[in-house]
């Protein structure tokens, strides 16, 4: 018991004073109980906070876990899985959407590669079959010098065809990887076109096709890779001659309009069905070759043309009417 001393205001004048005492055990016990309750309450709150935080964190990070698990299952042969998008507008929702878009792009690229490999195998199989067949026939019995020469000539045609397919495939392999350098130099497109048409004349004469080129301007200067421009226009003219009947005509025109250069190649050949015009620039796509009777095409020429034109921020368009001819327009930006 602690003594409590109460003094009067006149303590110095009186020799008497009163001492009053009270036990503090009750108060001490209450404080101890309060302290214990606070400790238990604090421990309980920490446990609740920990469990709640773990639950919220697990729920918040569940999409990340799903992304991780989905990424682990992805391969070149299993690209059909996607994460569920629940319409969240937060960072994780954007991450899920971006991840699904990335898988879409990868799947599209892989499908293109698989289709390209399949088409290439199909294109190479035909000349290889012809090479094998003609070689086996030639070896069945002894033949004359002229017969062997004929067989070798036929074999050479198929070898050249295979070489063209392989060259075109190599072009796209380099193009897709960005390894095709463009050696741009200032060139006179009119002179380049005249030279390309001159080289195409022998092929046109075989079918009695007349190629006309009468440019209004004698000089149209454009910074371009002459080799790629020659490849572009050679493919375009080769198609025009190939799908024009004997005795037909092909007209080539070039104009410089403001800041654009327009090249037009028009023929009066067999034309292209309307439903197939949008597909002619796809790799290995060919309009029914039985309509032209020409099997030299491998379906890559116009795809190469489109790549070259787009490399110069240009565009290429086709207008065609079945049975009446085709007009191909190339626009290059200066």
Structure, described:
The chain has 334 residues and is of the alpha+beta class. It has 3 domains: 2-71; 91-176, Orthogonal Bundle (Helix Hairpins); 185-333, Histidine kinase-like ATPase, C-terminal domain (Heat Shock Protein 90, 2-Layer Sandwich), CATH 3.30.565. It has 6 helices and 9 strands, in the order E-E-H-H-H-E-H-E-E-H-E-E-H-E-E. Strand 8 and strand 9 form a beta hairpin. Helix 1 runs parallel beside helix 2 (91-139), helix 2 runs antiparallel to helix 3 and helix 4 (189-206) runs parallel beside helix 5 (226-242). It starts with a strand and ends with a strand. The relative contact order is 0.07. The mean pLDDT is 81.
CATH arch. level architecture of the largest domain: 2-Layer Sandwich
- Please indicate the count of domains: 3
Quaternary status? single chain
Q: Can you tell me the CATH class of the largest domain? A: Alpha Beta
User: Which residue ranges are poorly predicted, with pLDDT under 50 across at least 5 consecutive positions?
Assistant: none
């Amino acid at each position: 018991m602690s003594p409590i001393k109460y003094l009067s205001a006149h303590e110095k004048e009186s020799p008497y004073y009163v001492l009053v005492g009270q036990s503090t055990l009750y108060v001490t016990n209450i404080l101890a109980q309060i302290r214990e309750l606070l400790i238990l309450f604090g421990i309980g709150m920490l446990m609740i906070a920990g469990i709640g935080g773990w639950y919220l964190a697990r729920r918040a990070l569940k999409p990340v876990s799903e992304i991780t698990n989905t990424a682990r299952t992805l391969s070149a042969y299993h690209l059909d899985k996607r994460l569920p998008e629940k319409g969240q507008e937060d960072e994780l929702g954007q991450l899920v959407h971006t991840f699904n878009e990335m898988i879409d792009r990868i799947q599209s690229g892989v499908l293109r590669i698989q289709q390209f490999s399949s088409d290439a195998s199909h294109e190479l199989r035909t000349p290889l079959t012809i090479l094998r067949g003609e070689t086996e026939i030639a070896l069945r019995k002894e033949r004359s010098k002229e017969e062997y020469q004929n067989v070798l000539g036929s074999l050479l045609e198929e070898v050249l065809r295979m070489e063209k397919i392989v060259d075109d495939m190599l072009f796209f392999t380099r193009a897709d990887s960005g390894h095709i350098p463009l050696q741009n130099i200032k060139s006179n497109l009119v002179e380049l076109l005249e030279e390309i048409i001159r080289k195409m004349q022998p092929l046109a004469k075989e079918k009695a096709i007349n190629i006309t080129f009468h440019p209004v301007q004698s000089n149209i200067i454009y910074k371009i890779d002459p080799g790629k421009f020659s490849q572009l226009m050679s493919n375009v003219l080769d198609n025009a001659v190939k799908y024009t009947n004997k005795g037909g005509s092909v007209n080539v025109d070039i104009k410089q309009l403001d800041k654009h250069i327009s090249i037009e190649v028009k023929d009066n050949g067999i034309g292209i069905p309307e439903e197939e015009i949008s597909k002619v620039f796809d790799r290995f796509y060919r309009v029914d070759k039985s309509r032209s009777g020409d099997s030299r095409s491998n379906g890559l020429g116009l795809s190469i043309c489109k790549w070259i034109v787009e490399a110069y921020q240009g565009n290429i368009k086709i207008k065609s009417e079945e049975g009446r001819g085709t007009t191909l327009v190339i626009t290059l930006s200066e």
